[in-house]
Amino acid sequence: MPTSVVDTVILIVQQPSIQGMSVETSTLEEVMAENDDKWLSLRPHEPLPAQCCGSGCNPCVFDIYERELKKWKQARAKGDQHLLSKHNESNQKDLQLIAPEKWSAFQIMDIEQETADTYLFRFQLPNGCCLGLTVGQHIVTRGVVSGVEVQRAYTPVSPLDAEGYFEVLIKIYEEGLMSQYVKTWRERDSVCWRGPFGGFPYKLNQYEQLLLFASGTGIAPLVPLLQYIVANEEDETFITLVGCFRTFQDIYMKSQLQELGAYWNVKILFVLSQEQDLKHLPCSYREKSYLGRINGDMVKNFVNSCRRKPFIIICGSITFNKDVLNYLSLLGLSEDLYFVF
Question: What is the pTM of this model?
């Protein structure tokens, strides 16, 4: 009897312990599953092809994705989610208004229609602050159209030292995905940007003469370059800008170009491919405008009319850039004498 009683007591005592182990095991599995779900929710999303603006940004959205994915894997392996948001306190990028790897929102201050299909957007910056770009740099914006995120690159046309604002010139294309998003922009809307990227490595008096060829909105990176040079009294570079547009009405930023053309070292010319007669143009434009599409003879004339041997910068459509490069090649100019945006 004593043995039997003891055995029974032992059984009664042990049974709750087995049940407790089962509950604890079940709870542990649930916690692990919940933890996995949480980590998966933090995993970076791979960008879609449409999210790349195609402008050769460094870093590209795919570079940023690979970098963030590596950081995520390392944080998960160590089981420390704080590593995903940990910042180096000495990192000066946190003090910048805009950075290549993060999106910053800026509010639209003003919208000015330049031509039938092109608009100048002015974005607000904190008082006394500049965007911090150098000559020729571009920035990237993003938008969602029909559930697809798209990104495009634009070069601000405002002076590099402009305080409290920056301006972007954007042409609207009827079938363009990004254009569908830009059409919705209104004053006081906030738009996300990141950058800067690219640029033209210009130094004071680096060239005796610059000859600039621009087509349409390709004029965007060249205007800040002109502004940067004329703003420095010690810069004695001669500049000739050849702007190629369809008609007089299609010329962008007329007042700004007129102001720049008044400087002693700046000459601004226009090639109007669809204008029929120069006499219909304002007097101040007749002597500095040419009719028809830009061709080899025009390019030769522009090069030969430079006061000194020019360094040439080209910015326009792929076709425009290819044509101008071909004309320069026929003139025997080597690749070290020109730069293409």
Answer: 0.73
